[in-house]
Design a protein that fits this description.
Rossmann fold, binds nicotinamide-adenine-dinucleotide, globular, 249 residues, single chain, 7-stranded parallel β-sheet, 2 domains, 8 helices, alpha/beta
């Protein structure tokens, strides 16, 4: 039980990587508070594991974050998973596209960290260790990909924010790391494939950029989340950890 006695909040936990992480953390003994904007997927998650507490949260709504923060038990771990993939080069990006992605991928994450850090600092004083995991991507400051202009910029900002939190609070028992997955088979990836002009070719192209010859599954990613939230990673902070199937070899 690598997360025994830890209370962990996860955003965008209704499906995909967030859901797998919620189930994985619960299996490792954590008390998981799973949040999402989608009540239906949260209800399905709660059926799969009734020990997981679910709460509706739209991370782009500052008032919802404030209300949640005021109503939470002390947190040992926070996994900011919510994010959106915009498809296009800079020439395809409207101001609205830019604002939407930056708001969801970066500003919401900043607000979550800002709202929950005071409670986590108190917890760190008591236990010596709390951990924040922020969802970035291999498409970020790590590597450029075609048609990921806003996405890459927003995920690079996540890495910068993560390093800054890590630097500011390293002496107070707070660790903060960014997770950088390769291409993961999730409902939203399936949506991106389905909306391509040639979905069969689009899937082949996604697989072709993964040197291991396949997409990641959510269960290839969740173990890194568990590791980063657990005390096993107690000497790891301020890092952008790749789980990319060899893309950046
Ligand atoms: P997904 O896109 O399939 O699911 C996203 C979840 O986010 C859904 O449950 C949705 O309801 C929730 N959500 C959307 N808007 C929200 C909001 N405003 N507030 C709260 N929840 C909201 O999940 P995924 O593909 O596992 O992606 C999760 C994260 O992983 C994202 O940040 C994404 O950028 C990142 N990521 C994904 C991949 C990939 O290939 N799938 C690769 C690298 C990084």
């Amino acid at each position: 039980m690598r997360l025994k006695d830890k209370t962990i909040l996860i955003t965008a936990a209704g499906q995909g990587i967030g859901k797998a992480s919620a189930l994985g953390c619960a299996a490792e003994g954590a008390k998981v508070i799973a949040t999402d904007i989608n009540a239906e997927t949260l209800a399905t998650l709660a059926k799969e594991n009734p020990a997981i507490e679910t709460r509706l949260l739209d991370v782009t709504k500052p008032d919802e974050i404030k209300a949640l923060a005021a109503d939470l038990p002390p947190l040992d771990g926070l996994f900011n998973c919510a994010g959106f993939v915009h498809h296009g080069s800079i020439l395809d990006v409207s101001d609205e596209d830019w604002a939407f992605s930056m708001d969801l991928n970066v500003t919401a994450m900043m607000r979550m960290c800002r709202a929950l850090l005071p409670g986590m600092l108190e917890r760190a004083e008591a236990t010596g260790a709390v951990s924040i995991v922020n969802m970035a991507s291999m498409a970020s400051s790590i590597k450029g990909f075609p048609l990921r202009a806003v996405y890459g910029a927003s995920k690079a900002a996540v890495i910068g924010l993560t390093k800054s939190i890590a630097a500011d609070f390293v002496k107070q028992g707070v660790r903060c790391n960014a997770l950088c997955p390769g291409t993961v088979d999730t409902p939203s990836l399936r949506g991106r494939i389905a909306s391509a002009a040639d979905p069969v070719q689009a899937e082949k192209d996604f697989i072709a950029r993964q040197p291991m010859g396949r997409l990641a599954t959510v269960n290839d990613i969740a173990p890194m989340v568990i590791y980063l939230l657990s005390d096993e990673s107690r000497f790891v902070s301020g890092q952008a950890l790749l789980v990319d199937g060899g893309v950046t070899i």
